[in-house]
Write a structure and sequence with these properties.
284 residues; mainly beta; Immunoglobulin-like; Lipocalin; 3 domains; 8-stranded antiparallel barrel; 58% strand; elongated
Amino acid sequence: MKNIRLAIGILALAPVAVQAQQQGFLENPYGDIPVSGIVAISGWHCTARRIEIQIDGHPLVAGANTERLDIASLCGKPDTGFSVLFNWGIFPSGVHTVRALADGVEFATRRVTVVNLGGEFITGRAGSTTIHDFPSVGQSAVLEWQQGLQSFVVREVKSDAPSLAGRWNGANLEVRSGCRNPDANGNHGTYHQSMIRFDLDRLVIEEATTSASALTCTYVGPYIQQGTMRAASGTLTCSDGKQGRFTTKDILLTPNEMSLRLAIQLDTTETCTIDAVLGGSRLF
């Protein structure tokens, strides 16, 4: 979590960090990133009369000397911006090199990974999807395909992101290996009802199987959420004496479905290493 915040801070301050070293900056694209659709390649330069963008050696002349009030104090004038609209769909998928030149002198270079959607300009397509817990936890961003931009844009932001907390019914699927009892190795599966709740910054899962053994297990451990990224780890205790530790490898969540991919290591009456999926459904 700390490393994520640090990386975001470095990215946000990157243009400032280079200001003392050079007279121009290529802001978009920034870093080694995936690119697609129709977007502006843009940035600023203090002294250039002509800005040229080269992609794998193919030249583009950018519109230059547009107003950038945020850079005026650095350059001593406001007319330092440049941009050129570009369709990444004309390039095949893969790594490509972007160079920015001011009056023939290179001042920036980037490596980008083009994701080609299947053609230079896709027509007759429609689609939308929702990303939960973005841009903030508890919110949902509805994305909609825009043909003119050849990409998805945010159509709406709602405050309806689903919560992992609540009652879920489903199956617990396991692949066990390295068990003290060899008969315990292999594939296993049980139906379960689980109650998930949060105790401050801890995740608590109380799982009860619906098999004849009526086994119950409790998972407890610290929980971290950064947007759509969720993670938890902690201890596992079961009513048959099994104990161990768990770590989430992946957590998927929709309003009616959830799936927790777990790495479990038992360390008491049994010593199994378990790759598990704890899945469930619910209706509101």
